[in-house]
Specification:
By secondary structure, the protein is mainly beta. 10% of the residues lie in helices and 39% in strands. 48% of the residues are buried.
Length: 452
């Protein structure tokens, strides 16, 4: 586990040395971990009923068949990755171009049917999408979506938004396809930079080129900016920076010789919480997004406090603290209030819990905890109740919630290789997002609107 505790950055001797002051209260290395007697949690997934959904080929004129097929592929993948449907194979005789035969679709077991028509005029494409309720034999929803030019970098995101609309029509709940994941990637020269990727693992882009140690990305609520933690290679300069994704411009929010760590935006986007060295350890501070004088929110006077994550109501935040002698998860109501321990700590056992992330839709917090000598992902209510283990295979760290409040992204070495993974916390289905041993610290954006 990296000295940061909250976010694990492996394989960088320079980074470990430069951040040594943040080692959390003499925590033993993972290689010598004992069995954690404080966590006895079973993994229980109750997927329940999953309705079958069929997707016919998008109807389009011959010159635009390839575009229609590309759209089909994205929507089909998105709806599969939503983990809310069983995707049915479509017989050739029912693929496109004919009237909907509800009786036949019903015999095939379909509950929902998605069909679409693509029309193109010049550089302007329009996709008409309909969702049919096969059981009731009716068209439940239909909408025409304007798409940007196929060559536009925003084309795939526009299609993701259509997928999310279908999810909401069918379930009444939000999707997560139209979102991005930011993460830190180490280059061959040992420096780190921020990269972003779509929720389906496509479109990886490098977002920073700082020739330094850049990590702990945090999306702004609208997804247009990323706050990140910066440290010069020499270790004598540190700060929290704001990156505007569209232009690539960065600006310092707060900086100096003291270590600045683990930024997080407030839900309204007006402020940034972060950790900074103060009075013998690190504490949580907040600062206006445009800069100014930081204000202390915690005053523990024992060990280190870092990794803030804010509740959707903006009135509470969780963080990692080591007041009991080992990193644990705490929730605090407001500046100066008494923090409350919500992770499971057993004195004398190898208790270790870090990297909290607050669900964007409810009061659940996900974090990593050492269980039987291996880091696993745990979810718990903000009052400490209903603790549940989500993973058991391999080493799993750095969880972050999707905007649907149901999926998480995390780093893991499951399956024999390291990378970023996505887990559906309802069904337990896991899928690989990126396969790269140098990808760490993922942060999942909110749903992106029409101007990402």
């Amino acid at each position: 586990m990296h000295p940061l505790g909250v976010r694990s950055l492996r394989g960088s001797t320079t980074l470990r040395a430069s951040l040594a002051l943040l080692a959390l209260s003499g925590v033993a290395s993972q290689a010598h971990a004992q069995e954690d007697e404080g966590v006895r949690l079973g993994i229980t997934y109750r997927p329940g009923y999953v309705p079958a959904l069929a997707i016919t080929d998008i109807d389009a004129e011959a010159p635009f068949a390839a575009v229609a097929a590309a759209i089909d592929s994205v929507i089909a993948r998105d709806l599969d990755y939503s983990d809310r449907f069983e995707i049915l194979p479509v017989p050739d005789s029912l693929r496109a171009g004919s009237a909907v035969n509800y009786g036949l679709w019903n015999q095939l077991g379909a509950v929902w049917l998605v069909e679409g028509t693509l029309t193109v005029s010049g550089q302007q494409a329009m996709l008409r999408v309909g969702l049919h309720d096969v059981v009731y034999g009716s068209l439940k929803e239909v909408q025409a979506f304007t798409l940007p030019p196929v060559a536009s970098p925003d084309f795939r995101m526009a299609v993701h938004r259509i997928s999310d609309a279908v999810v909401e029509w069918a379930t009444g709940e939000p999707g997560m396809a139209a979102s991005r994941i930011a993460f830190s990637r180490r280059g061959e020269d040992g420096t780190w930079d921020i990269h972003v990727v779509d929720s389906d693992g496509q479109g990886v882009q490098r977002a920073t080129r700082r020739n330094a140690l850049v990590f702990s990305p945090a999306f702004s609520p609208d997804g247009s900016h990323i706050a990140f933690q910066y440290q010069s290679n020499s270790g004598d300069e540190s700060g929290i920076y704001d990156l505007e994704l569209e232009t690539g411009r960065t600006s310092a929010v707060t900086s100096g010789s003291l270590m600045h760590l683990t930024p997080a935006f407030t839900p309204d986007g007006s402020r940034i919480l972060f950790a900074r060295y103060a009075s013998g350890g690190t504490e949580i501070f907040e600062v206006d997004r445009s800069g100014g004088s930081p204000r202390a929110l915690t005053s523990t006077a024992v060990g280190d406090v870092l990794g803030p994550t804010i509740a959707p109501d903006g009135r509470r935040f969780a963080f990692t603290g080591s007041a009991v002698g080992a990193p644990q998860i705490y929730v605090q109501e407001d500046a100066g209030a008494r923090p409350r321990l919500i992770s499971r700590f057993v004195r004398g056992a190898d208790s270790y819990a870090t990297s909290p992330d607050w669900n964007p839709l409810d009061d659940r917090i996900v974090y990593q905890s050492r269980v039987q000598g291996q880091f696993q992902i745990v979810v718990v209510n903000a009052d400490g109740s209903e603790m549940r283990l989500l993973t058991s295979e391999g080493r799993n760290e750095d969880p972050s919630w999707a905007p649907d409040g149901r999926h998480i992204v995390f780093s893991s070495d499951r399956g024999g290789y390291h990378g970023l993974w996505i887990l559906d916390t309802v069904t337990g289905r896991a899928r690989n997002l990126l396969r790269n041993s140098e990808d760490q610290l993922p942060d999942w954006s909110n749903a992106l609107g029409s101007d990402p």
